[in-house]
């Protein structure tokens, strides 16, 4: 339970994508929506910033990497509609959609220089939030 004050006004959630290829798409989206609803119940009035799942050079657990990539796009679109209907903000990572090898570590899954990427997400989210609020 969240008992400490002050409660956050904004929460940034990054869709990591590790369950793609393991969990059926509908079930995954259902769980993600339930998690967001649960968060909003714990923190009334919180604004949600949704950081979309980014593409990868390879998907672990995938029998068909193209199918998993399509699934990622569908999940992102579905969650974007859901988050926007709740008054939230969606961060789409267009710069990563080209799937350039330089963005990834040797495993093709994890982003290189993750700390820098987190800062970019945070700054972008806050700038977008400022535009919406004021």
From TrEMBL:
Residues 8-113 form the SGNH hydrolase-type esterase domain. InterPro entries: SGNH_hydro, SGNH_hydro_sf. One of its GO terms (molecular function) is 1-alkyl-2-acetylglycerophosphocholine esterase activity. It holds the Pfam family Lipase_GDSL_2. It catalyses: 1-O-hexadecyl-2-acetyl-sn-glycero-3-phosphate + H2O = 1-O-hexadecyl-sn-glycero-3-phosphate + acetate + H(+); 1-O-hexadecyl-2-acetyl-sn-glycero-3-phosphocholine + H2O = 1-O-hexadecyl-sn-glycero-3-phosphocholine + acetate + H(+); a 1-O-alkyl-2-acetyl-sn-glycero-3-phosphocholine + H2O = a 1-O-alkyl-sn-glycero-3-phosphocholine + acetate + H(+). SUPFAM superfamilies: SGNH hydrolase (SSF52266). Its EC number is 3.1.1.47. This is 1-alkyl-2-acetylglycerophosphocholine esterase.
